[in-house]
Structure to design on (642 residues):
């Protein structure tokens, strides 16, 4: 950089000097003028080409930087999207006729707390679901209880309750069809989605 | 029970019912017979000949046939009677008289008919007149006689009116013939509240299809139905007016608004709300404002149902770790646990006539209908080995129970007597039918 500045400075000096010479030699014969004009032109060209080179260097530098930033941003975006997807796709599972949080449910919820802290504007709907066994109204209440258990955990971890809404679907919306323990276990869950305003 | 004893009891009812002058027969004892512990174990054999055409017009013939069939179906529905096949009758019933003097009672006792119901129809210039006479062939006495006049399309109403009078005479209780059943039906477009007559006739959809609809509950005046529907992001309670077809929002608190139950003695409703972060039962005023909180326990409290006078409330609570029934005394506020058997007892309904609660209980993964005596805690199972059986609700006279069963595949509406006999499908319609509620004894 310093070298370039020096070069530019000396070029500038030459230009100034030649300009001064031109002025002082104004009344000199025309050929001299032509010479000095040619010299001037040559100097100018030289200056221009130097500047071009410098600008090109600068451009290429700038572009590289932008590309890196773009990539970083894209990666960050991807990561954010992944985290957002994970936030939605990772469900919390419950035992039969139970709304208490298991250890693995708490692990999943701790991730969600982190995400919610990083995204203080996010508003989330917590859905409580049940398996097909049991009776309709009780399952709607149990689904509500499950969603409330999750909300309770999140608010105790410092997430503002006004960002969290609960809703129960009881046994009305199973995640998987089937009438065995495998299906039931997948259906006893809390799911997460973002408020439509988000 | 021996034949002699049965006869004696029959005579007891008939003698009493015969006394057409009010106060001429002792009140309480009269009805004990049909009201004893097992009223459905031995059905009363009954004969209903085709009605007599009184003006002998051609159109009357069909009306006469319809009347007898309709009457037979409605009375058989109750589970009290066994209809004797008309082919077994000893004389041409159409040709003989319908009044006492013309009846040869021996012809009816010979085929074992303990009750004989004769009728006549007269159809003249669009006006239908129907006569009904109930006899005891053994005593050779008339128990009840009625005549109704109205339009031709009022025939079903006349027949059911007489059935009501007859059951009242024999049991001392208002019958169920003017009652209706509300339920949730699933069609292609979603779930709606439907209403049908006691016998599954005249099915009408009363609300527009929605994604989740549960717990329809009749008001004591039989005009309104409260229910829960999922709208605007949560479950809210709505009230449908059957008279003008309108629907209004009743409770829309944050969280769930679930399982409304009308208090029989007032305009209040109990319901489960979760706006305080826990599912508790509250008493709401007729405008949906919170009067007071009725339960105080962490966990689910849901499905309230009141005793006939509203002094007690049975409900489901998970406070012991699994859903069980509890009874709350509305005045003292005390709460006691009602069910101890099984680990999943829900959907209670208090009998309109006595100290019994019907509910659904789960054992070995199967759900069945049980009845528990509130005082003694004695439990009886009413369904078994026939799919899942859920959501029981008493008929207004306490003689029958409507419920859902998956015994034929999809959940469908079934009825049975209060003893669990005569279980049969009430409605055969496409889709799923759930959560029936039988209209309560009508209070204006």
């Amino acid at each position: 950089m310093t070298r370039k500045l020096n070069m530019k400075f000396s070029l500038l000096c030459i230009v100034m000097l030649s300009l001064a010479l031109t002025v002082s030699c104004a009344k000199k014969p025309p050929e001299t003028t032509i010479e000095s004009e040619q010299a001037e032109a040559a100097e100018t060209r030289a200056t221009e080409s130097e500047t071009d080179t410098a600008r090109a260097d600068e451009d290429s530098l700038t572009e590289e930087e932008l590309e890196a930033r773009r990539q970083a941003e894209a990666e960050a975006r991807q990561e954010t999207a992944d985290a957002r997807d994970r936030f939605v796709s990772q469900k919390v599972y419950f035992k039969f006729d139970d709304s208490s949080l298991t250890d693995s449910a708490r692990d999943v919820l701790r991730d969600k707390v982190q995400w919610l802290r990083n995204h203080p504007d996010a508003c989330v709907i917590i859905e409580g679901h049940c398996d097909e066994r049991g009776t309709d109204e009780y399952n709607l209440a149990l689904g509500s209880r499950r969603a409330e258990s999750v909300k309770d955990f999140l608010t105790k971890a410092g997430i503002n309750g006004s960002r969290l809404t609960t809703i129960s679907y009881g046994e009305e919306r199973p995640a998987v069809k089937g009438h065995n323990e495998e299906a039931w276990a997948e259906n006893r869950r809390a799911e997460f989605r973002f408020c439509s305003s988000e | 029970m021996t034949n002699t004893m049965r006869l004696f009891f029959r005579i007891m009812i008939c003698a009493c019912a015969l006394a057409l002058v009010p106060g001429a027969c002792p009140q309480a004892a009269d009805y004990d017979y049909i009201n004893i512990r097992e009223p459905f174990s031995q059905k009363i054999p009954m004969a209903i000949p085709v009605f007599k055409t009184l003006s002998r017009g051609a159109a009357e013939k069909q009306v006469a046939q319809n009347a007898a069939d309709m009457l037979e179906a409605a009375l058989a529905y109750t589970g009290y009677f066994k209809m004797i096949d008309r082919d077994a009758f000893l004389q041409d019933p159409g040709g003989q008289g319908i009044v006492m003097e013309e009846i040869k009672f021996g012809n009816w006792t010979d085929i074992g008919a303990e009750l004989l119901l004769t009728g006549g129809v007269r159809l003249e210039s669009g006006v239908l007149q129907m006569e009904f006479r109930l006899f005891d062939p053994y005593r050779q006495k008339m128990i009840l006689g009625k005549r109704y006049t109205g339009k031709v399309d009022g025939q079903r109403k006349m027949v059911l009116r007489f059935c009501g009078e007859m059951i009242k005479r024999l049991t001392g209780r208002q019958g169920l013939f003017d009652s209706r059943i509300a339920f949730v039906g699933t069609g292609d477009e979603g779930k709606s509240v439907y209403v049908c007559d006691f016998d599954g006739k005249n099915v009408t959809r009363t609300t527009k299809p929605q994604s989740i609809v549960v717990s329809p509950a009749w008001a004591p005046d039989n005009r309104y139905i409260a229910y829960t529907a999922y709208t605007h992001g949560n479950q809210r309670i709505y009230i449908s007016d059957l008279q003008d077809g309108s629907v209004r929002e009743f409770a829309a608190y944050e969280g769930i608004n679930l399982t409304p139950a009308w208090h029989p003695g007032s305009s209040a409703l109990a319901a489960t709300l979760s706006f305080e972060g826990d599912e508790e039962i509250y008493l709401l005023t007729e405008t949906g404002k919170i009067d007071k909180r009725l339960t105080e326990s962490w966990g689910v409290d849901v499905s309230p149902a009141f005793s006939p006078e509203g002094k007690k409330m049975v409900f489901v609570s998970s406070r012991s770790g699994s859903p069980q029934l509890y009874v709350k005394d509305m005045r003292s506020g005390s709460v006691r646990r009602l069910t101890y058997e099984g680990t999943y007892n829900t959907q209670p309904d208090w009998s309109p006539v006595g100290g019994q609660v019907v509910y659904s209980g789960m054992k070995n993964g199967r759900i069945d209908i049980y009845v528990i005596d509130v005082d003694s805690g004695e439990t009886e199972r009413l369904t078994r080995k026939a799919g899942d059986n859920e959501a029981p609700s008493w008929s207004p006279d306490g003689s029958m129970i409507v419920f859902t069963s998956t015994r034929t595949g999809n959940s469908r509406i079934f009825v049975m007597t209060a003893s669990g006999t005569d279980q049969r499908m009430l409605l055969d319609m496409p889709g799923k039918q759930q959560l029936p509620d039988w209209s309560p004894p009508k209070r204006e």
User: Anything to note?
Assistant: Chain B touches chain A through 38 residues (CB under 8 Å).
